[in-house]
Amino acid sequence: MTVCGTPAVFILVSIVLMSVTPTSTGHKLTDTEIKHLCSKTNVGGCYKLLKSDPRTTNVDARGLAEVSVDLASNKANKTHSLLNSSVNATHDSRLKNIYKLCSSNYNDAIRDLKAIKNYLHSGAYKNIPSEVKDAYEEIKQCKKVYGRATSDHAHIKKKNQEFELLISIVEVTSDNLNKN
Hints:
Blueprint: H1 2-20, H2 31-39, H3 46-51, H4 61-89, H5 93-122, H6 128-146, H7 154-179
């Protein structure tokens, strides 16, 4: 009876390990390949930003896309919190309205990034570009609300630019999955 149970346990353990393994393509990306992907963002700092995350040392295409989504999500959440704090900190009704509108935009962008993460996990890569586009649109709306930079909200404009960089990285890394 133990002999019959051993192969079943081995198969079960193998299935569990395969489902936990983060590889999708099995091909680990080289630094050259990551640099090539970053060259498609038209923004400096992509490679340095990705390589600053220790998860990129031994990652495949899906793993790199997951890292980029995590980085963008972290930035979006921090900016969203900053906007909400700014709403409560200001007594200027015009600024309060701007912060509220952008906070709503970031909330929607965070939702888009969660959808992207779900698509990455399910392998539905073809659905990712529309969510990336939606996240870009949310930030464009926030930029429109701010208009020209003033000292009152230049820090938010900088956060928007940083988030745009991260979304462009998400776009490039997820587009790479659709090509594989």
